[in-house]
Write a structure and sequence with these properties.
Radius of gyration: 29 Å
Number of helices: 20
Bound molecules: pyridoxal-5'-phosphate
Strand content: 15-25%
Largest sheet: 7 strands, mixed
Strand order of the largest sheet: 7-13-12-11-10-8-9
Helix content: 40-55%
Shape: globular
Structural class: alpha/beta
């Protein structure tokens, strides 16, 4: 026992101290590059691991000698691990275009360039260059939304629409309800009291906005008369909520938007619509039907529409409130608006994205570009990848037909025909293969169906195909 303890302390003594290690020339070079504090932390962590290994008798004398010999390399590795960014790019091979867990909409190149410009110096964010006085940050995008959402002309001329930008659509819904309905009631159909992932529940948002929810109808059927009968002197607004990722089929009834608009007008109440995804692009161009966009709601006469910036719009994370200027002005003067407003980076990305819409340049916006790909275009790339793999017997690839999903709370029926690469391995189960793809650099995210791993190249950028091919080759040759 005593001999053992002596031997252990002897082994400990062979390890350098943190101080000695920090003076090694190779470590000094690391310090110059990455800074003293992180290198010291890494050196300490490496020595700690070695001491623990000695303590557990996992290292004998030759083992310690080898570890000491490699200690600089270990410090470098540990440092790299510690300084690795946690938020990293991944390859989305799921075929879900607006994947909330993978960051929703990728930004257009113009949006990135504009972020870089706005972020690396000063800008006229809240400065009017003409008058030299203080300006409004929303003016930068309001003018573009005005163009894109110009309402129908009536006797009073074309209807104008104002737009306010907040952090996300959850904040937009809260701001609309708090401004219009605090202390009063908002009428909503029971069939629309939805939860939209990540615990966004309409009843909870309503409670937080100090509005009182007045539920009408039943889960599957709500008539316009249900709304009409519920209106009282406490009513402040009518609310319609897009059901997003949820569908009620069969024996159902829901008033048409124009019936709700007519009722709201007649009773002089604002109609608020939480559209969720909010397309500014005619989705039928991508073969998706039955999904109305922001313009449809504005034209139908909805007073305030709320929607996300990073769903079907294809821009940065944001919540947009578009509607009647006097109502939007009230929301801007809500004392909590300041807590919800967005920074210059979001305006920069949003303005560049909206400019692409003004120009009709839909291909500039990655999410819209992906939506418009045909299954034949996806197939060409899948074929090329399959031919890389099928030469190797350990991993086999087959081309199959399937569906991509728009996602981001567009109607659940919003799917696009696609071509999939179905992978199976002789050595790995499907979930193991999936995990191997996740450990590639950059990680590749795919899905499993019927014991096969499915890759949908619709959501993979074409310049990432080579990285997918090399990951597949690496897995096949293991
Ligand atoms: C996605 C969604 C929200 C939440 O929007 P965020 O931008 O994620 O805050 C709210 N309502 C509906 C109907 C949605 O689809």
């Amino acid at each position: 026992m005593a001999a053992q303890a002596e031997k252990k302390s002897e082994l400990y003594r062979r390890l350098p101290s943190v101080d000695e290690l920090m003076h090694a020339p190779a470590i000094a070079a690391l310090v110059a590059r990455e800074g003293r504090a992180p290198v010291t932390d890494a050196a300490r962590a490496v020595l700690e691991v070695l001491r623990a290994a000695i303590h557990r008798k996992e290292l004998d004398a030759p083992g310690v000698e080898k570890a000491v010999h490699e200690v600089v390399l270990s410090v470098e590795r540990e440092l790299h691990r510690q300084l690795l960014l946690s938020l990293r790019p991944v390859i989305n091979a799921t075929g879900v275009i607006l994947h909330t867990n993978l960051g929703r909409a990728p930004l257009a190149a113009e949006a990135l360039a504009n972020i870089q410009q706005a972020a690396s110096g000063y800008s006229n964010l809240e400065f009017d260059l003409e008058s030299g006085e203080r300006g409004k940050r929303d003016s930068h995008v309001d003018r573009l939304f005005r163009r894109l959402l110009a309402g129908q002309a009536d006797e009073a001329g074309p209807a104008t629409v104002s737009t306010l930008v907040v952090n996300n659509n959850a904040a937009a819904v809260w701001l609309a309800l708090n401004t219009l309905a605090a202390g009063g009631e908002v009428i909503v159909s029971r069939g629309e009291l939805v939860e939209i992932g990540g615990s966004f529940r309409i009843p909870d948002v309503m409670a937080q906005s100090n509005g009182i929810l007045r539920e009408v109808g039943t889960t599957n059927r709500t008539r316009i008369s249900d709304y009409a009968n519920a209106i009282s002197d406490k009513t402040r607004a009518l609310l319609r909520v897009h059901r997003s990722n949820f569908q009620i089929t069969g024996f159902t009834e829901q008033p048409q938007l124009k019936e709700l608009v007519a009722l709201a007008r007649e009773r002089k109440l604002p109609l608020v619509e939480d559209l969720g995804s909010g397309a500014l692009f005619d989705l039928s161009l991508a073969g998706i039907r039955g999904e109305d966009g922001v313009l449809d709601s504005v034209r139908a006469g909805v007073d305030v529409v709320t929607y996300s910036g990073d769903k079907l719009l294809g821009g940065p994370q944001a919540g947009l409130l578009s509607g009647r200027p006097e109502l939007i002005a009230r929301m801007r003067s809500n004392s909590l608006f300041r807590a919800l407003r967005v920074d210059k980076l979001t305006y920069a990305a949003l303005e560049a994205t909206l400019l692409a819409y003004v120009k009709g340049d839909y291909n500039a916006i990655p999410a819209l570009r992906m939506m418009q790909l045909t299954k034949e275009e996806v197939r060409e790339r899948a074929d090329r990848l399959a031919s890389e793999v099928s030469r190797n017997a350990a991993l086999s690839a087959e081309i199959v037909e399937g569906e991509s999903v728009v996602g981001g709370g567009a109607a659940p029926s919003a799917v696009l025909p696609t071509t999939l690469l179905a992978l199976s391995s002789k050595k790995l189960r499907a979930d193991e293969l999936l995990a191997r793809l996740r450990s590639a650099e950059p990680p590749i995210i795919a899905r499993v169906e019927a014991d096969r791993v499915l890759l949908d190249l619709r959501t993979v950028f074409p310049d990432q195909d080579a990285a997918v091919a090399s990951a597949l080759r690496a897995i096949a040759s293991e």
